[in-house]
Amino acid sequence: QVELVESGGGLVQAGGSLRLSCAASRSSFSTNDMAWYRQAPGNQRDLVAFISSSGSTTYGNSVKGRFTISRDNAKNTVYLQMNSLKPEDTAVYYCYARPAGSWGPGTQVTVSS
Which residues lie closer than 8 Å to 11 by C-beta, 6 or more apart? Predict the structure, then answer.
């Protein structure tokens, strides 16, 4: 089991930037694919960005060109750089590890207009 803890959320104005971090508890982090999901009130949890254990990335259509996912296996950490934030990016952001099947508790991101 890999334990995950997100950080870096907060309140930001539209057009601003935030960087989220997700720290993993085990060195087996490097063999896991990692992803960021988000969930706004009343909505389903949607994929934001994905990075494989080998570093390949994919993004949700709504964040392409604005968000960047990266990982540092030496630090057991995955990042989500979020630029040009919009009010519709407001959600709780969750980190996910596969095949461990682990979720973090989430971090709130609020973008004001």
Answer: 110, 111, 112
On the question of a cis peptide bond just before residue 87, with omega within 30 degrees of 0, the verdict is no
- CB 111 within 8 Å of CB 86: yes
Contact 37, 93 (CB under 8 A): yes
Give the pLDDT confidence of 65-91 residue by residue, as tens digits: 999 999 999 999 999 999 999 999 999
- Tokens representing 97 are 């590890």
DSSP class of 99? T
Span between the terminal Cα atoms of the chain, in Å: 39
| Cβ atoms within 10 Å of 80's Cβ, excluding its own | 27
